[in-house]
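The instructor's notes for this session suggest beginning with a concrete chain rather than abstract definitions. Hand out the sequence below and ask the class to guess, before any prediction is shown, which regions might be ordered.
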Amino acid sequence: MIDKFCDKVSNKITSNILPNETELISFGLYHFIMYSFLVFTICFIGILTKTIISITIFLLILIPFRRYIGGFHFNNRLLCLFSSIAISLFPIIICQININQHYLGFFCLLFYMPTLFFSILEHPNKPISTDEKELYKLKATKIKYVILLTSFIFSTFNNPYTKIIYMSMTTASTLLYLGIFQNYIFSKSERA
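After discussion, reveal the predicted structure:
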């Protein structure tokens, strides 16, 4: 339904001005609508549950990690959208659970440390060039260490948002490990 709407709008826009760019404009419009829906939904739920700051901190750590390191992805766009909304709501759950911050920190670091040794993870359907890989590796390394430093600073000062940072790191690590497994299954099915 959204695809058809985007195609109609892009055809109207490009018919007179940019006739060769119809597909590109439709793609951009689709993603704009989907991300707008995602942001609106997350903000609405965050405001209702009074966890907008927690959700924002969670996403500020998770998004750069996912962008430059990679991880598990659904091939279906709607499934990806709804899983993104579900994952973005983790802070609401974490805020409700009384977990000892030090135990959570130990578990988080145990889970996060191996990611420091992984390079970026490509999605099988979206390969990137060697130059892009090098750029991503550099940015990924910086991001991993900034996240680690942030978690250390927050835990040192016993900040109430430390649990959210730990949960973001654990979620990002889990998605990376699931992505590695996904790529392994994908490469195994291609060989068969």
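Then share the key points. DSSP finds eight helices and no strands in the chain. The longest helix spans residues 162-191.
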